[in-house]
Amino acid sequence: MFNAILIEKNDSQQDVKVTSLENDALPEGDVLVRVDYSTINYKDALAITGASPVVRSFPMVPGIDLAGEVEHSDHPRWKAGDKVVLNGWGVGEGHWGGLAQYARLKGEWLVALPDAFDSRQAMIIGTAGYTASLCVDALVDHGVAPEAGEILVTGASGGVGSIAIALLKRAGFTVVASTGKLDESDYLKGLGASEVIDRAELSEKGKPMQRERWAGVVDAVGSHTLANACAQTRYRGAVAACGLAQGMDFPASVAPFILRGVTLYGIDSVMAPLEPRERAWSRLASDIDAKTLEAVASDITLAEAASVAGDVLAGKVKGRLVVDVNA
User: Do the beta carbons of residue 97 and residue 68 sit within 8 Å?
Assistant: First the structure.
């Protein structure tokens, strides 16, 4: 038996509860993982509240992230005792996920937990931090260098933004944080932001071409914020887009792309292949320290996880929520 958050649907109503399940109820997979920690991400909050139809089959155990230890493996890459981390792959949407004490998964979905982290630290990072690292890799691969100018991070007080600021600062960049929580300015500057601006400066409809400012952008917001960020990006700069907190629309012009040579990178963290995943986790292992992780972490229990989903969607949560599934 193991404990899990279970989402069931009766007619048009969702029922979410913490319950005990038989191990035989776990879906198919060639690796059985004893989960230590999971997280609550934006997508998890959508799944738990039913605010968006991200769950594709019921009943469902949510949780797009997990870290733990292999208990049994029929996959050649893994053996009992291996420490592993999982992000994405449709887990928590179409395959039972990490908000449980056990998960049965496909071995190709797993990444070895870097020696620099324990399971809890890996989940402070989670999909949010792993996505942030993919964004930084995209900017660096594009050729954006610290001397090129400021990097804008939108949705800065959220999980992606928080880790992105820390990674960019460590890489030598000057970071400007955009947030709707100006009372968190000290927190953001502590992570490495040199300046904090009000998200209102970017969140309304703007001109298709604006004064050049940003050498690069990490955007977790979308909609008008992303459009304005692109319109303000310098000649041959790059924008890494990974979120839609403001909306999934993109009310923009082609002008920045064809007149300034701006490049817009779409960052997919769900189905990314192994090589960029391992590279992203390698950057995290080398550039994020324990002090930074603790600054962005809040710990909750499995029983508390379902109740905070609404706060996540409302933007009331700072940093990262780490779920101790065994507490």
Answer: no
